[in-house]
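Appendix B. One record, verbatim.
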Amino acid sequence: MDELDRAIVNFLQGGFPVCECPFAEVAAQLQTTERELISRVDRLLQRGILSRFGPMYHAERMGGSLSLAAMKIPESDFERVAEIVNAMPQVAHNYARDHVLSMWFVLATETPQEHAVALGKIERETGYPVYDMPKIKEYFVGLRLAV
């Protein structure tokens, strides 16, 4: 990463403007062009330096459902189960953990009913129970990591 890449990553951790031309506004503040900013964000995503670029929604406030889920999967069956779980469009952020609950993922759906259906589908297709851990209380921790 060069200095402009670092400036982009550091700046974007503080939010993204909601306006008619947000990339142009950020580009002006970073003393670059809108085209260059978009190109660099795309390149940072392609190289895996940024894992995602987009808004964070409060699913529950929009009528949806979001939870952290975990499964106890034997190592010998982990890859098979991961393929099934990862194929579901409602699943994001699937991680292997060195824990009795070895697979952790976020499940996000448009409705609470769809959430229950997705959990049931995962259990049926994998043959393992899903431990669903819905959010009880939300906390916001502002974390900025200078690059």
